[in-house]
Design brief:
Helix content is 9%, strand content 26%. By secondary structure, the protein is mainly beta. The protein has one domain: Cyclophilin. The protein is globular and about 35 Å long.
Length: 85
């Protein structure tokens, strides 16, 4: 991750982060797969489901996977979500 976008954790975590929210903490980037508390700085959301409890394996991503985040339009987001939001 580029140091240009690094950000410290929040001093007080939020109680509720929506599933699929993208966050930054220090030099790490991550995605909250389910709704949960969290203290990372929030920078966006992915339309993709990351936690798939009825699948095997139940996750879209695995250890060692590399991902790239990129900007999409609201329409692209809606299309990828299948209109489910």
């Amino acid at each position: 991750m580029s140091e240009k976008i690094s950000a410290p954790r929040r001093s007080t975590p939020r109680l509720k982060i929506p599933a699929r929210t993208v966050g930054i903490a220090g030099m790490q980037t991550g995605v909250y797969p389910i709704e949960t508390p969290g203290g990372w700085q929030l920078i966006g959301r992915t339309p993709l489901e990351l936690f798939l409890p009825n699948e095997h394996p139940p996750t879209l991503l695995g250890p060692g996977d590399k991902i790239r985040f990129y900007k999409i339009t609201s329409k692209e987001y809606e299309d990828l979500r299948g209109g489910s939001e």
